[in-house]
Amino acid sequence: MEQQKNIKPISPKFLTTAIIGFIILLVVIMFSSATFLTIDAGHRGVLFRTFGGGLDKEKVYTPGFHVIAPWNDMYVYDVREKQLSEPLEVLSSNGLNIKVDISIRVNPQYNQVGYLHEKFGEDYLTSLVVPELRSSARQILGKFNPEELYSTRRDEVQGMIQKNLEDKLGENYVDLRATLIRDIELPDKVKTAIEDKIEAEQKALKYEYILQQERQEAERKTIEAQAKADANRILNASLTENILRDKGIEATIKLSESPNSKVIVVGGGGGDGLPLILGGN
User: Fold this and answer.
1) What is the residue range of 12's domain?
2) Could you report the per-residue pLDDT of 26-43, keeping only the tens digit for each?
3) Whole-angstrom distance, CA of residue 259 vs CA of residue 257
């Protein structure tokens, strides 16, 4: 009984201090085991909460310093543009095997990396982009013949692949920035035949251009000759007998005033009645 009397009760002040100390210790332990991470420029993060609802698709972590609980995981995505080059073998519209090298530039949609991670994961290039590129390329290239792919409609084909692939990737949280057909390799015989045809077409165009120039020059000369003929016709129509007689009189007067000796015979028997001019130096 005396020992129980000697036990002193815990003071409220001590109890409060102990509780505060325990809380501080707990906070220190938590922060000492917390994960500190930095997201670099050109990257985005998506958090997986182990005890809080799983993947947080809505919140995207931007570049900077972040602190997360040690039991959570942060998945960091590089959202800068990436270039992929894919060599393909496809069949043309007439069944010819063609080798094509296509290059594209893509990047994840910045604010949708959570959904991209949930659907395809960090290896989205392999699981999404490359298969869709192959599918779109084969689908579009198979509509054209070798000559169209090699020369006449190459840009059109490239644009069609871009549009088709852009739609498919956009539905899955990836932006397509550019598509480029870098090379189209045909069998040597087919390539030579196409090049010969193109050369012949160029020569034909050149010859047609020369003919067109000659036709234009001929038309110009015809118009010029016609203009001269019309002018002469108008002039002849305007030269009446009276006008010609007046011109003759004017010429006679000028000659008579000349210092050179001459003989002027008036009424020389010409039908026009003009004088005849004889002699002179």
Assistant:
1) 2-78
2) 666 555 545 788 899 999
3) 6
